[in-house]
Amino acid sequence: MFRIVAALLILADLALRARNFTYFYTDQGVVPRSLAMDALPVDASVYFLTGSQTGTAALFAIHALFAVQLLVGYRTRIATALSLVFVLSLDLRNPLVLSYADTLFVWLLFWAIFLPLGERWSVDAVHADRAPRASVATPATALILAQLVTMYVVNGYHKTESELWTSGEAAALVLGLDDMTFLLADLVQQVPTLLQYGGLAWYYMLLFAWVLLLVRGHLRTVLVAPFVLAHLSFAVTVRIGAFAFVALAGLLLFFQTPFWDDLRALLVRAGVPISRMNERASRLETVAAAFPRWRPLEGVVVRLSRNPRRTAVAAGAVLFGAFALLAVLSAGGLLADDVDPAETAQRGAVGFVDHQTEWSIFAPNPRTTDRYHVFAAQTEGGERIDVYNDRPLTVDKPDAELQTQYGTYRERFYMNSVRAGEPADTQALFADHICAEWNEDEAVDGELIYITMYVVEADVTWETIDSPSERTWEPSELYRHGCGDREPTVVEL
């Protein structure tokens, strides 16, 4: 189930990123490869091979094919490793739009390489010469469970540094942010006290998530259920991308045999035609059997299985090598010919520790400042407009719901990078792109000549959680730009 959900997440992510295909992933957009390399000093990545639309589209297609291979479970371990390479490469192609969901998903995929994800419901299972195992317990199963628990516990630890979290108020204030909440958020904003108790419960759930590793069977199911409910609530209230769904995929791994037995019994009692589904599965097995059987390592696996010591040494070597490689890549460095192996291993270890101690999601201090953007621009004919929101120039809110100012959730992450001005050329490249797009349209009132980027912010207080209109909004200048060779000139609001 984890394998299937992970593959579907990759396909869904590709489909969602395709909405900003040219804008974010080609050299014709706001993040050319040079800017991406400045953000993370990595120059070897699959998605850095080309910056053209055609070439990048081809890479998207190959990326999707590996995800489909993972979905059906054909040469599953290879499919998992190749999917990881493409997922990580796509993340590196535009680090300005990433979130903790992307980081968590990369680590889950990495540990999943060492799991028998093709054991059931797969082409590999049909090709296997033995019955699927009832359960699996290996260092890899421990590590992937520990990955999710580490994310929870470290995040909880960061939250201990903020009184807003220890009092429970943080959850209510975060859900008052109009620029990142949607769907049912308006409803839950009406009960801030309930949100406060929910935030306090979430805080303690994070701190004591390590208990999930110690319990088994039905008790583990009972303790995992609140985490599932919490992430489902995030998915329908806070527009934070795929984080809720990635975490839910990871939580699937915590459900043991009793849960699946109970689920099957529940489906039978509900009248779900299990026998008919089994018949359809048999027909699928016929299709799976037609796939070519390619087992280049079969002899090696047999020899290793007969020698436990050799197996342990080989497994340790593979784990260390893969761990070091991914840790170095994720830390932003690459293996060079003149790099000392000891230094490389040290950098890899540092990268791993940095990533596992950086789970500061909404922590230690959560953002409690609502915001929207106004890009004041002037044309040659003297017309003044808000070019970001495509309207006459005004400092008023662009929409009743501020989250709609972003076409996709990754646009909000990108605007966080623009606001921070990191890397250094981010704002200039964005402004140049706006100028070029406007001037290509041959506007009636002439070319765009000046742009001044503003962010308009307001503090969310306990009294204004459900009433953004009552907040005090203040604009501040981010960046001024002159289109073409013009000197930057401020365009006043």
UniProtKB/TrEMBL annotation:
It is found in: Endomembrane system. The keyword Transmembrane applies. InterPro entries: HTTM-like (IPR011020), HTTM_dom (IPR053934), Sporulation_signal_mat (IPR052964). The keyword Transmembrane helix applies. GO terms for cellular component: endomembrane system. Residues 1-259 form the HTTM-like domain. It is a multi-pass membrane protein. Keywords: Membrane, Transmembrane, Transmembrane helix. The chain crosses the membrane at residues 44-67, 96-115, 136-158, 200-219, 231-255, 312-336. Its main location: membrane. Pfam families: HTTM. PANTHER family: HTTM DOMAIN-CONTAINING PROTEIN, SPORULATION-DELAYING PROTEIN SDPB. This is HTTM-like domain-containing protein. The lineage of its organism: Archaea, Methanobacteriati, Methanobacteriota, Stenosarchaea group, Halobacteria.
